């Protein structure tokens, strides 16, 4: 029977490595992680990460050094993450699919001591461990002397410009085993990890789950049918998705009604991108409003909002109110507090007296009178509930009117034949910018049909002036789309000039 940690232990601040060691000692033979057809126990994960940590030490990694983790979702990822903390290093996850040039820029920015998941030929002046690296069997797998990384993680963001920046966590690798309780995690949970671990939400929620002694069910790469099958096979109780995943799963469920049992789910979090109302309503109808939760706040976690599905039904489209002592406000273009319903830039600040939640490397914070902006636009209703419009850098100004791509994309994505889409602004002699939709869809879909749908839902100036069909997904597994890259590719394909942009 699963042993639960007592309340005092759950709420005591300790180094991460000690928290994990106590979880292992509580039940060493309990399942820690399942990935495809392999499962490791807590003891096996602990011993493997001890040996890996000593391999890191032999590679020259010391307290405070950055270790770039370019690994796909896998048990090996968690071994590398734990090994980084055990030597006191700063884990810096990146996508394993990054082009060499982009990864090189990030590695130079971080000055990484070690790159895990890369070939040495790609980084001749850095120490590299390739994918599948196994430490020498002679290395000791006994516990290491306890160390504390000064920065518990370093996230990477390309931003709207494509230039990389590091988002360094404002705290060292210490915390409470029960930190995940605030997000509804429980010690007996079976958590589905479906998003890429180089993104903040899948990483943090799964680590919090590991520290509570949860069983993590990890997908190497998101696939809608495999995710649904994993929920049923493992009796998953908690999951974290982005709207793109929710849309893909919903289409599979609709194509194969009655095949998948989702009754084990107790809590489903979604975040990372704006969720269309129709999609959220469909999931509420599917599993119940009380099980659906949404969070907004960004990797920087200056302040965070949350809202339950039941609450959302009374404030449709909202991402909730700030929780945990954080604050948010919306400022209009004049720098004044926006009126209820007026779109402006979202500013936030953390709880009173709290230390900074992050630090940038390669970028500057946008701060105004102690309030910070991540560049998002939104509005508040009269009760203080926040609604997200889009990012300021993504906004299209067409003929003097503001068009938010996310709003148009939500309508396009609602078409049953659409797999993914991105809406961008292209240079136009008359309008300045024209709204252009790049769509990945089933071959049967025609542009006229899509434009008619958008015209029924949105004002005329928001309807795309042009539609382009492509053969690949436009969003990654975390639901992210780099609109600047989509836009530049469309300009090149269509032979347009950037002069008037």
What does the radius of gyration come to? Answer: 23 Å
Largest beta-sheet details:
9 strands, mixed
Task: Write out the strand line-up for the largest beta sheet, numbering strands in chain order.
Answer: 3-2-12-11-13-14-15-16-17
Averaging pLDDT over every residue, what do you get?
Answer: 92
Distance between the termini: 64 Å
Q: What fold name stands as the CATH topology of the domain at 8-210?
A: Rossmann fold
Shape: globular
Question: How many helices?
Answer: 13
What is the correct CATH architecture of the domain at 8-210? 3-Layer(aba) Sandwich
- State the total count of DSSP E strands: 28
DSSP strand content: 25-35%
**Class computed from helices, strands and strand pairing:** alpha/beta
- Helix residue percentage: 25-40%
Q: Can you tell me the CATH superfamily of the domain at 8-210?
A: ANL, N-terminal domain
CATH top level of the domain at 8-210? Alpha Beta
Unreliable spans:
1-5
Structural account:
By secondary structure, the chain is α/β, with parallel strands linked by helices. Among the domains are: 8-210, Rossmann fold; 395-494, ANL, C-terminal domain (GMP Synthetase, Chain A, domain 3), CATH 3.30.300. 28% of the residues lie in helices and 27% in strands. The protein is built from 13 helices and 28 strands. It has a nine-stranded mixed beta sheet, with helices on both faces. Strands 18, 19, 21, 22 and 23 form a five-stranded antiparallel beta sheet that branches. Strands 5-4-6-7 form a four-stranded parallel beta sheet, covered by helices on one side. Helix 12 links the parallel strand 27 (432-441) and strand 28. Helix 3 (42-58) crosses helix 4 (75-86), helix 7 packs across helix 8 (243-255) and helix 8 (243-255) packs across helix 9. The longest helix has 17 residues, at 42-58. The radius of gyration is 23 Å and the shape is globular. The termini are far apart.
């Amino acid at each position: 029977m699963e042993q639960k940690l007592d309340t005092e232990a759950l709420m005591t601040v300790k180094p991460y490595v000690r928290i994990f060691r106590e979880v292992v000692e509580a039940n060493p033979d309990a399942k820690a992680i399942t990935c495809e057809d392999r499962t490791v126990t807590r003891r096996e994960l602990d011993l493997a990460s001890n040996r890996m940590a000593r391999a890191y030490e032999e590679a020259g990694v010391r307290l405070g050094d950055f270790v770039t983790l370019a690994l796909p979702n896998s048990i090996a990822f968690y071994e590398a993450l734990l090994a980084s903390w055990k030597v006191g290093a700063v884990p810096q996850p990146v996508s394993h699919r990054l082009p060499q040039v982009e990864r090189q820029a990030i590695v130079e920015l971080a000055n990484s001591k070690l790159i895990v998941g890369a070939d040495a030929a790609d980084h001749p002046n850095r120490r590299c461990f390739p994918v599948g690296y196994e430490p020498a069997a002679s290395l000791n797998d006994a516990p290491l002397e306890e160390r504390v990384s000064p920065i518990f993680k370093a996230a990477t963001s390309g931003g709207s410009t494509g230039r990389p920046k590091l988002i360094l966590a404002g705290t060292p690798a210490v915390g409470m085993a029960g930190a995940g309780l605030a997000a509804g995690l429980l010690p007996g949970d079976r958590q589905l990890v479906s998003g890429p671990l180089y993104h903040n939400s899948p990483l943090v929620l799964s680590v919090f789950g590991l520290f509570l002694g949860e069983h993590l069910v990890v997908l190497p790469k998101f696939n809608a049918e495999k995710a649904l099958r994993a929920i049923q096979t493992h009796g998953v109780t908690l999951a974290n998705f982005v709207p793109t995943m929710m849309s893909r799963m919903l289409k599979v469920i609709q194509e194969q009604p009655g095949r998948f049992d989702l009754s084990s789910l107790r809590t489903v979090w979604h975040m990372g991108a704006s969720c269309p109302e129709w999609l959220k309503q469909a999931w509420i109808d599917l599993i119940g409003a009380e099980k659906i939760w949404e969070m907004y706040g960004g990797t920087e976690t200056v302040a965070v909002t949350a809202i339950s599905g039941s609450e959302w039904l009374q404030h449709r489209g909202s991402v909730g109110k700030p929780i945990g002592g954080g604050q948010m406000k919306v400022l209009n273009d004049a720098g004044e507090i926006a009126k209820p319903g007026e779109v402006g830039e979202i500013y936030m600040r953390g709880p009173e007296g709290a230390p900074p939640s992050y630090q940038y490397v390669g970028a500057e914070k946008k701060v105004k009178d102690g309030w910070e902006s991540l560049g998002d636009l939104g509005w508040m209703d009269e009760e203080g509930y926040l609604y997200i419009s889009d990012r300021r850098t993504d906004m299209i100004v067409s003929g003097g009117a503001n068009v938010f791509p996310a709003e148009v994309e939500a309508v396009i994505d609602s078409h049953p034949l659409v797999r993914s889409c991105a809406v961008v602004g292209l240079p136009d002699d008359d309008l300045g910018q024209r709204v252009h939709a790049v769509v990945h869809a089933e071959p049967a879909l025609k542009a006229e049909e899509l434009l008619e749908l958008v015209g029924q839902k949105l004002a005329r100036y928001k309807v795309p002036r042009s539609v382009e069909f492509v053969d690949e997904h436009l969003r990654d597994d975390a639901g992210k789309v780099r609109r600047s890259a989509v836009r530049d590719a469309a300009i090149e394909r269509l032979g347009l000039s950037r002069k008037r942009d």
